Automatic annotation (TrEMBL):
It comes from the Bacteria. A motif (Histidine triad motif) lies at residues 97-101. This is Histidine triad nucleotide-binding protein. It comes from Microbulbifer halophilus. Residues 6-113 form the HIT domain. PANTHER family: HISTIDINE TRIAD HIT PROTEIN. Pfam families: HIT (PF01230). CDD domains: PKCI_related.
Length: 119
């Protein structure tokens, strides 16, 4: 059995990480190596490895994660933001627990984003 990811350990309370938001389906924390002034990680409690690991039954969860992103954008008064999912090692994923990066308040490049937003 693989060792739990750092996100699974945060969700389990084994590692302290102040939560910006949480509900029964996900948690949101600040990235410890932010790539923008606002850099949040939206992490499902369900331990999906990446987006490709999600099945048809995960559609409500995936929709909820997007809703959480939009709700945070509204509550934080963000004029605009970018959502990024690094899906697989070749896309720059280093933490193998699905998560969405929410980045704001910094102009981001249109190309080469995988290099701009490491896990």
């Amino acid at each position: 059995m693989p060792e739990p990811s750092v996100f699974s350990r945060i969700i389990a309370g084994e590692i302290d990480a102040p939560k910006v938001y949480e509900d029964d389906q996900c948690i949101v924390i600040r990235d410890r190596s932010p790539q923008a002034p606002t850099h949040l990680l939206i992490i499902p409690r369900k331990p999906l490895v990446n987006l490709s690991d999600a099945g048809a039954g995960d559609k409500p969860l995936l929709g909820h994660l997007m809703w959480v992103a939009s709700e945070l954008g509204r509550k934080l008064g963000l004029d605009g933001y970018r959502l990024v999912v690094n899906n697989g090692r070749s896309a720059g994923q280093t933490v193998f627990h699905l998560h969405i990066h929410l980045l704001a308040e910094k102009e981001m490049p249109e190309q080469g984003l995988a290099d701009a937003v490491p896990d």
